Amino acid sequence: MKKKRLIPIVLLRNGWVVQSKGFHEYKNLGNPFMSVKRLSEWASDELIYLDITRDGEYDLRRDDLRDPNRHDILEIIEDVSKMACMPITFGGRIRTIQDIEKRLFRGADKISINTQALREPSFITNAAKEFGAQCIVVSIDAKLENGKYIVMAEGGKVPTKYEASEWAKIVENYGAGEILINSIDRDGKKSGFEIPLLCSVADAVHIPVIGCGGAGAWEHFGEVFDETRVDAVAAANIFQHVDQSVHLAKKYLYDHNYPVRPPEFFEVS
Amino acid sequence: MTTNVCILDYGSGNVRSVYNMMSQIVSQVTISNAAQDVRSATHLILPGVGAFGASMEKIQKKLPLKVLKEEIFTKKKPFLGICVGMQVLAETGHEFGEHKGLGWIEGTVRKLNSGNLPLPHMGWNEVTIQKQSPILKRFPHNPDFYFVHSYVFEVKHDKDIVGTTLYHENFCSVLFRGNIFGVQFHPEKSQKVGKILLENFIHI
């Protein structure tokens, strides 16, 4: 049987792994390599790395350690990919076909686009034609406004004319291979996923949908699988905070008969 | 003879990850399309992501096919095709028009019938071992591998199919004939079981 996927999201800001709350508060959590090592060892199903740097500066502040400093997202991608024997999606600040090509060449399996898809929807088609739809994830940030889930642009700040399910259909038609739907209202709240939002998007399209935003307990993942058709759930904060988080989440779901991979550890050399 | 793996380089996206996992298993791994590297290799891997036609075009253009065929069919070197690298073994492919494949294994590549399930088929799914083969040793019962594809290889002869996977329909996920192996999933992305599969391959 096909398994539902559990996907940790690692947020990178200026080369640091950060925790986000409501898309505007950030807390530094450490360097990207330690987090990928842990998440690999806990046998995550996939990883998503989102670069939310605004000014283009990368500094791991690791002069004290033997690892070289990484100022370049491409070098971060290369190092992270070497460590993870699982699919990795990289997103953030992708504007051109060359941006995608460079990331795939350095070891990304998929790339996620958000702003550029809104600015120029045909970019999705061009990217899918060039690299295959399977590696083009369109990320959608949605916010509840007057009873409607409105797609937000520019890092969640600017409302667009689209409802989430409507935009999801459009990006599917333009050739996206997968959708990552994120609830801005639930970001960092730990109160559970925005189920109606996930339902509306997953029911609108035929491509796989990853639901995100609001995970605060393992049961929240189960709720999503019970109540929506999404293929995968993603979370950032909860997977960074708890030791062996992914393993424990899987164990909970596996023990409660959800279709997930058996909880195991994976040795990373 | 020391194991020497050559990952055939024709510009496919996933060479780097196959290389990363392979180099955890053996010390001599090259990514190359040079005839002398194909000749000196003990094991050959054809990776692949993307569309059938585009991949075939690049394979025809960039790989030394005459040498490759000699090494596989005369010298019987173990060969592993991954994802589209397995699909191109077919006679024809029907992704974005009809395209000719390498024709090493009889059959055609066509769209996966996923019914109401999402397409691409993306994520971890079980491989049911239909028959024993050297590449499917040492596995737990029906292991989960990582898949990402929308097309499947409809293999003509059942005897070539050693593993199948169910996603609305049953399709061939592992094929085996003599020294030729093919997997529809990505062992290089499949953590522990992927590593076991690649270890099995290099021990052939």
UniProtKB/TrEMBL annotation, chain A:
GO terms for biological process, alphabetical: L-histidine biosynthetic process
Gene3D superfamilies in alphabetical order: Aldolase class I (3.20.20.70)
InterPro entries hit by this protein: Aldolase_TIM, His_biosynth, HisF, IGPS_HisA/HisF, RibuloseP-bd_barrel
The protein's Enzyme Commission number: 4.3.2.10
CDD domains assigned to the protein according to its UniProt record, in alphabetical order: HisF
Transmembrane segments: none
GO molecular function: imidazoleglycerol-phosphate synthase activity; lyase activity
Catalytic activity: 5-[(5-phospho-1-deoxy-D-ribulos-1-ylimino)methylamino]-1-(5-phospho-beta-D-ribosyl)imidazole-4-carboxamide + L-glutamine = D-erythro-1-(imidazol-4-yl)glycerol 3-phosphate + 5-amino-1-(5-phospho-beta-D-ribosyl)imidazole-4-carboxamide + L-glutamate + H(+)
Top-level taxonomic group: Bacteria
This protein's pathway: Amino-acid biosynthesis; L-histidine biosynthesis; L-histidine from 5-phospho-alpha-D-ribose 1-diphosphate: step 5/9
Enzymatic class: lyase
Alphabetical list of Pfam families matching this protein: His_biosynth
Keyword line: Amino-acid biosynthesis, Histidine biosynthesis, Lyase
PANTHER family in the cross-refs: IMIDAZOLE GLYCEROL PHOSPHATE SYNTHASE HISHF (PTHR21235:SF2), IMIDAZOLE GLYCEROL PHOSPHATE SYNTHASE SUBUNIT HISF/H IGP SYNTHASE SUBUNIT HISF/H (PTHR21235)
Its biological purpose: IGPS catalyzes the conversion of PRFAR and glutamine to IGP, AICAR and glutamate. The HisF subunit catalyzes the cyclization activity that produces IGP and AICAR from PRFAR using the ammonia provided by the HisH subunit.
Assigned protein family: Belongs to the HisA/HisF family.
Quaternary organization: Heterodimer of HisH and HisF.
Protein's name according to its UniProt entry: imidazole glycerol-phosphate synthase
TrEMBL record, chain B:
Pfam families membership: GATase
PROSITE patterns the UniProt entry points to: GATASE_TYPE_1
Keywords: Amino-acid biosynthesis, Cytoplasm, Glutamine amidotransferase, Histidine biosynthesis, Hydrolase, Lyase, Transferase
Domain Glutamine amidotransferase: 7-201
Active site: C83 (nucleophile), H186, E188
Alphabetical list of PANTHER family matching this protein: IMIDAZOLE GLYCEROL PHOSPHATE SYNTHASE SUBUNIT HISH
Subunit structure: Heterodimer of HisH and HisF.
Listed name of the protein: Imidazole glycerol phosphate synthase subunit HisH
Organism: Candidatus Gottesmanbacteria bacterium RIFCSPHIGHO2_01_FULL_39_10
Lineage: Bacteria, Candidatus Gottesmaniibacteriota
